[in-house]
Design brief:
The chain has about 300 residues and is α/β, with parallel strands linked by helices. The protein has two domains: about 200 residues, Endonuclease Chain A (Endonuclease, Chain A, 2-Layer Sandwich); about 80 residues, Endonuclease, Chain A (2-Layer Sandwich), CATH 3.30.870.10. About 35% of the residues lie in helices and about 20% in strands. The termini are far apart.
Amino acid sequence: MAKTRGTPASDGHEADWLDVALARAAGAAPVSGNRIRLLRDGPENFPAWLEAIASARHYVYFETYIFRGDRTGEQFAEALSARAREGVQVRVVFDWAGSFATPSRIWRTMREAGVQVRSFNPFDWSSPLGWVHRDHRKTVSVDGRVAFVSGLCVGDAWAGDPAKGIPPWRDTGVLIEGPAVADVEQAFARVWATMGTPLPEGERRPRKEMDAVGDTRLRVISDEPGTAGLLRLDQFIASAARQSLWITDAYFAGTPPYVQALRAASLDGVVVRLLAPGSSALPALQPFSRAGFRALLESGIRVFEWK
């Protein structure tokens, strides 16, 4: 077994070679003492987010790629505004490109209520290609007590409309309670600081005040624009898998290193499955995704499309 003198774990556990490799690939140390709950689609995620926001007493950090001006967007704008009117520090980050079509009244409503709203990387003529760096993260955190990490943006498409028989877009979220909430908030703080004055010293609840609430040990991988932590981690996990590897990917792009890692795992006897959407919010990407399926199928990987 490989030995290491470093201890990338932040939770007191002795670090083995796998801990070291994961920490280096993902840039994130494991954190113990958490409780998590899997939330499926908007009908499970959105009510949990709104409940957490309504319970806020000190601060709410909200980060998203798309914040639409439809019924769901207005619902969240009002929920965030209501807490700001009560004196809660509410901070919102949205991506300029992802929310380009959002009506200005959404931001005006929140700002007039006292919500601090920042736009990530708006177009700048002095750097015409700089706009390609986007913030696709979707997180909510409240009072250092609870956090949500998900693939859901804010809009009716993710909520669905049962009355009209319209299902929600398929997406997954995770509710986190425990010391790992500090890592979600730290990720928000770093992005917030790139757009202006950093968060005030002492606003966030420190990790040392977050008690263990469960037995889940996890890593918060706060990938950021211009970094490749998740890409490195995907390749590492594909290389390290021993029995099974199940992947859900909304925008599968079969880069050669990633496809090679998946094929090698499958040819080595690992059960590899990929779930991709049958239709995409980015139609131009779908032909490229499907073009990459052949190499996977030829190595025994099963590919499914969500209809």
